[in-house]
Write a structure and sequence with these properties.
Length: 88
């Protein structure tokens, strides 16, 4: 991730620890995706134990981590700019 936007020079990390909120968003996104994947796996294989459904869902979720990481940061920046707009 760039430290600054190459076009408008907006600084993405406004302060140290700025992306702590993105971690929370990423956590909830990850839990939601894993739960949905586990339910989907359970639908495909109804005799499989829930523990195995979640284990397979966690492994499959690893493919989504780069996407979730980016969306969590982007979502956090939108929320933060909405709540606390930067001074011009
Ligand atoms: Zn920009």
């Amino acid at each position: 991730m760039n430290a600054q936007c190459p076009t408008c020079r907006y600084i993405f990390e406004r302060e140290p620890g700025y992306f702590l909120g993105a971690i929370a968003i990423g956590y909830f996104l990850g839990v939601s995706i894993v739960a949905a994947l586990a339910v989907g796996i359970r639908q495909i294989a109804p005799t499989l134990d829930w523990e195995w459904c979640f284990a397979f869902a966690l492994v499959f979720y690893l493919l989504f981590t780069p996407i979730v990481f980016q969306y969590a940061r982007t979502t956090w920046m939108y929320v933060d700019n909405w709540l606390d707009p930067p001074s011009p």
